[in-house]
């Protein structure tokens, strides 16, 4: 996914293999994904959410040069799932961040 302009989007960059009550871990392997040169605005504080299967973790997910400004509601400043005001959330994933980013990377 390259050279995309987003305006006031919800969940701008997301991979979600957590199906909750719909079943167990996904058995679909996700690898070699690129998100590059994505810019604009988001109403979601977790700019990047890469939530992969415990049994088949994501490999080679690259997030490069992503500049998405948060324009959601600012009253009461809720923190993102990653703990910061705006950021990224990764679980069971090998995510490689690079270039210029407008948010903190996933905690190690």
UniProtKB/TrEMBL annotation:
<keyword id="KW-0378">Hydrolase</keyword>
<dbReference type="GO" id="GO:0005975">
    <property type="term" value="P:carbohydrate metabolic process"/>
</dbReference>
<dbReference type="GO" id="GO:0071555">
    <property type="term" value="P:cell wall organization"/>
</dbReference>
<protein>
    <submittedName>
        <fullName>Exopolygalacturonase</fullName>
    </submittedName>
</protein>
<keyword id="KW-0326">Glycosidase</keyword>
<keyword id="KW-0961">Cell wall biogenesis/degradation</keyword>
<dbReference type="Pfam" id="PF00295">
    <property type="entry name" value="Glyco_hydro_28"/>
</dbReference>
<dbReference type="GO" id="GO:0004650">
    <property type="term" value="F:polygalacturonase activity"/>
</dbReference>
<dbReference type="InterPro" id="IPR012334">
    <property type="entry name" value="Pectin_lyas_fold"/>
</dbReference>
<keyword id="KW-0134">Cell wall</keyword>
<comment type="similarity">
    <text>Belongs to the glycosyl hydrolase 28 family.</text>
</comment>
<dbReference type="InterPro" id="IPR000743">
    <property type="entry name" value="Glyco_hydro_28"/>
</dbReference>
<keyword id="KW-0964">Secreted</keyword>
<dbReference type="InterPro" id="IPR011050">
    <property type="entry name" value="Pectin_lyase_fold/virulence"/>
</dbReference>
């Amino acid at each position: 996914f390259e050279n995309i302009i987003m305006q006031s989007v919800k969940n701008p960059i997301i991979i979600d293999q957590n199906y909750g009550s719909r079943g167990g871990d996904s058995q679909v392997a996700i690898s070699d994904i690129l998100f590059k040169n994505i810019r604009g605005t988001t109403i979601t504080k977790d700019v990047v959410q890469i939530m992969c299967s415990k049994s088949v973790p994501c490999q080679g997910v690259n997030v490069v040069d992503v500049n998405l400004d948060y324009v959601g509601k600012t009253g009461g400043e809720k923190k993102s799932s990653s703990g910061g005001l705006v950021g990224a959330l990764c679980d069971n994933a090998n995510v490689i961040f690079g270039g210029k980013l407008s948010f903190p990377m996933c905690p190690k």
